[in-house]
């Protein structure tokens, strides 16, 4: 029998965890597959670990990976995917916003031979207007800048990957992990299943606008070097403008002979160009900082402890 690993990153999800577990198992118990549930505790400050341990005790399919601190969702998810042993994996949020009831549909597409099955949300009514608009702008910008990597719109981390796609994904060990981009980058035969995204079952979101902004910076800088090129073109354009303007002033002075006014022009130009230069120094800095982090090549995460039921020789659970 083939097995499927469900991977759930959790940060302060004690409140929803029992509900998540019961809804998830209600769905997967009806399926004709072996399952493994990989729970990753991403340095929660509430009782997430205690709640998860209860599940480990009552269900031998549950594995709890307790990270040494909070590493962020992308890394926590990677840790879980590293530990997953199934023939396919399904990453899922803990808050039931990725409805387990969709799992049979994902699996069906997998049976049809697709190696990656994306879950696409058809409406984002659960999100605020601001969040929807900023997401739409981000997707458009990403598509323009990243060239060949197409991230499907309105697809989160919720999807199914078969072993081959997963191994490809996991072979990319970069520290700045924009998972949506990495998922898309691996390619393979992809299919899409649609669903309505419900609102969070309990607890609250861990992503504010500042985090989302940084997240999109991560996405763009991880998949595109176009921002670095902009400064080249801007530089060429302003140099050309300065050259032409210089000729104009020279000719005018020779022909008309008037002395050169234009103090305001100088101030405006100097401050404008100063601003442009600082801006692109910042853009370079973004890339250089990322290079710095990648070059250090530290492990992506540390595991404090793993918990799962073990059976000793007497067949008793430990
Ligand atoms: N999460 C995590 N580490 C973090 C932040 C979030 O593992 O530092 C998990 C969180 O527990 C949840 C998933 O990532 O399972 C998605 O988070 P959330 O629901 O807050 O994001 P949203 O749905 O609001 O975008
Ligand atoms: Mg959520």
UniProtKB/TrEMBL annotation:
Keywords: Cell membrane, Glycosyltransferase, Membrane, Transferase, Transmembrane, Transmembrane helix. The chain crosses the membrane at residues 230-251, 263-284. It comes from the Bacteria. One of its GO terms (cellular component) is plasma membrane. It is a multi-pass membrane protein. Residues 5-169 form the Glycosyltransferase 2-like domain. Its main location: membrane. The keyword Acetylation does not apply. The keyword Cell membrane applies. GO terms for molecular function: glycosyltransferase activity. Belongs to the glycosyltransferase 2 family. GtrB subfamily. This is Glycosyltransferase. It comes from Hwanghaeella grinnelliae.
């Amino acid at each position: 029998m083939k097995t499927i690993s469900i991977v759930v990153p959790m940060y302060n999800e004690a409140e929803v965890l029992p509900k998540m577990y019961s809804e998830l198992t209600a769905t997967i118990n009806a399926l004709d597959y072996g399952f493994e549930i990989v729970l990753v505790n991403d340095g929660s400050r509430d009782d997430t670990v205690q709640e998860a341990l209860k599940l480990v005790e009552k269900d031998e399919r549950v594995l709890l990976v307790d990270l040494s601190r909070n590493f962020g969702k992308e890394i926590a998810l990677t840790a879980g995917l590293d530990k997953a042993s199934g023939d396919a994996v399904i990453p899922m949020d803990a808050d039931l916003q990725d409805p387990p009831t969709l799992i049979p549909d994902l699996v069906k597409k997998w049976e049809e031979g697709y190696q990656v099955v994306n879950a696409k949300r058809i409406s984002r009514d659960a999100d605020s207007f601001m969040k929807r608009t900023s997401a739409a702008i981000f997707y458009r910008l990403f598509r323009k800048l990243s060239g060949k990597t197409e991230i499907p719109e309105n697809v989160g981390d919720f999807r199914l990957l078969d072993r081959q796609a997963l191994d490809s994904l996991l072979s990319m060990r970069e520290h700045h992990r924009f998972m949506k981009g990495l998922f898309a980058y691996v390619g393979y035969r992809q299919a899409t299943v649609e669903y309505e995204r419900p609102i969070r079952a309990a607890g609250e979101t861990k992503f504010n606008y500042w985090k989302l902004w940084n997240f999109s910076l991560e996405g763009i800088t991880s998949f595109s070097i176009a921002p670095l090129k902009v400064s080249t073109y801007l530089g060429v354009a302003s140099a050309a403008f300065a050259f032409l303007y210089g000729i104009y002033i020279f000719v005018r002075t020779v022909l008309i002979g008037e002395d050169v006014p234009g103090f305001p022009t100088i101030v405006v130009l100097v401050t404008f160009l100063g601003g442009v230069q600082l801006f692109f120094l910042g853009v370079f800095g973004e890339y250089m900082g990322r290079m710095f982090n990648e070059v250090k090549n530290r492990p992506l995460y540390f595991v404090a402890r793993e918990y799962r039921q073990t059976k000793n020789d007497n067949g008793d659970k430990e």
